[in-house]
Amino acid sequence: MTAPALEAWQPELREVIATTRSFTLRSEIVGGAFAVWVTVPPGYGAGDAALPVLYVADGNTQLAITAPTGSLMMMHETSPIRPFIQVTIGYLGDDARNFLKVRNRDLVPPGEPFPHQMAAHLRPRVERGTLSEEQYAAILADLSHSAGDRFLAFIERELHPRIAERWRVDADDVGLFGYSYGGLFAMYVFATASPLFTVIGASSPGILSAQSEVFRRYDRRIAEGDSTLPPRLHLTINDSETSSEFALYRDLSHNYLALVDRIRRTPLPGLRATAEVIRGETHGTGIVDAYRSFVRSCYTVRGHDPRTELAWPVEPHPN
């Protein structure tokens, strides 16, 4: 008996993730095009209430991980999650094939000190043949010409208005989640006091310098007595990063702890912050648990949060 032949299948995205639609948007501010995936919560078509919207960076790697995870969490009966619309941002074409390079342009703050650890960290990939000399040079070049401010302006002024026009978005409940360099971008957005976001999650944020723009801008807000109500903030790090064999991740964890210490010692007025250490995961594998930690901490229906002991409400530092 002959086994049936396998037939090639190129499904539409909606056949794989039924609640997700995709479109492309060219940014005049950034000077490039983006792929955008919008995932609505289960039962979205049955109501007319405005919903929170959550922007997620690094869509080419994180769409398939975070969007279905969020939808499943919303259907969990014993720990209900407030429904939200997720907007995942990534790249297409050549930019998608070279996303490790292009994300450096968009997720790293302007003026961020050059991460020499990154150059050393990526060099073995060239030796193994998984990264060409040209790709290696291009990645480092974009780190020298980072433009996270333009990517932020793209979200605020070009993307969000389009999302708000087409989907039922609560203008007072806008979130941002980022991991690694996405977490660095999230903390840059937090430190710059973007008026758009009310909830921010920064997981294993790629702060690789004690002179990071994140620290500089945060310290300036404190020095100037900025009383702007900051977004709700949730931070995570993976336990293995603190003792990793790679210096890059040890430096990241050192600066993460410096960030937590700053927030504890000199909090912005009105800041609500939580943090969690992700157990048993590495920088490369921690994204799923980091995303779940953020969603549980910031979108759980009030009164049903099983992790309230993790919260560390920040109190003003005594003068």
TrEMBL record:
Keywords: Hydrolase
Signal peptide segment: none
Superkingdom, natural source: Bacteria
InterPro entries (alphabetical): AB_hydrolase_fold, Esterase-like, Siderophore_Hydrolase_D
Pfam families assigned: Esterase (PF00756)
Keyword Hydrolase: yes
Gene3D superfamilies: alpha/beta hydrolase
An example Gene Ontology molecular-function term: hydrolase activity
Family: Belongs to the esterase D family.
PANTHER family: SIDEROPHORE TRIACETYLFUSARININE C ESTERASE, SIDEROPHORE-DEGRADING ESTERASE (EUROFUNG)
Protein's UniProt name: Alpha/beta hydrolase-fold protein
Organism: Caballeronia jiangsuensis
